[in-house]
Amino acid sequence: MRLLDILDYAFRDYTSNKFKTVMSSLGIIIGVMAIVVMLTLGNGLSAGVTSQFSGLALDTMMVIPGSILTSPSNSNTVALPPAQFTDRDVNLILNTPGVAAVNPQISLSGVIVTSGGENLSMSTDAVVPQYFMKWYSGDMDKGRFLQSSDTYSVVLGSNVSNGTFSRNVNVGSFINITNPYTDSSQSYQVVGVLKEINASIIGGNPNMAVYMSTSGFKAISGQTSYSTINVRANSVQTVDTTAQNVQDSLSRLHRNEAYSVITQKMFMTLITTVFNMITYVLAGIGGISLIVGGIGIMNVMTLTVRERTKEIGLMKAIGATTTDVRLVFIAESAILGLFSGIAGVVIAGIIAAIIGNIANLSMPMSLTNIALGVGFGLFITTIFGVYPANQAALMDPIEALRAE
Question: What is the pTM of this model?
Fold first, then answer.
């Protein structure tokens, strides 16, 4: 039999029993739809997260005391004490190759800030004005920034000044800051409000912080070592090399102390990896649906072979070879898989578009995902069609013609 004759025969069988064709293809359509939807959603979410990160300072890193990077545990390993960072470390990092700017700070979370009789819990950061102004380019919304001599003055993040309290906290106002851990309390005058600053993956939201000088911080806390040293590299391309240089520089001063150098690119890579893992797991679940659909097609094709026993005997009687019969049934499975895959991709595109519209994310289907969906549908149905095709091909024509 010619290939065109085989395909024509397979098409006529499906068009003659449309209901059976539709019911047979449902499992494949659902499986392909699930795979393509999961892959498309995963790609869309990953692209959305990446676009959000593009507005963040990926050329920055954070140096903190202690070790937060996980490594294989060893019961014989003695945990090192956290490093104590001072101005000596700041100067060392500032002179490290690849470093453009530093911003050391002492952070204290959970302090009680009182304004107009209203108490709210937030964080306060003690900073070195000369470093801070270079780090944030001196962008002020109102008033001025801190000076080294400002012991009882503070600068507010944009959100603290506008919207956090019932009434806006303006320049010239006084706020009271209480450290609940030491019961220390001090009144400070607001001398400035920062413009809104982009949030950091690792540094938190600077718009919700109260900034003061290190000398003013002593009134509510006895901590003198820096809890964080923010570092900016010369460029995003050199941030990894600069992070390693910072690591090497600090190792000379803190041989027996623990510290961590964390870049924002590390977190971006980690989050992207997690999204990819979730996407593949969900696609795997869709693949299971596809296999179940393939088993269903194998069952339907097996029953079809039994129903068409006389037809198969007649085909062999008029000259069809074993290979011809096998190809006819494999072609029927492949055609069913091809059109089921296309239908699944179309439905997946509609679902992805609806979800993308609701989530306000772009969810375009890539050619790779489309090819995977159609390819899996075609592959699964062809594989599961081999067994019933062999049953039909190996059938004895005389016994087939005798069948009722």
Answer: 0.60
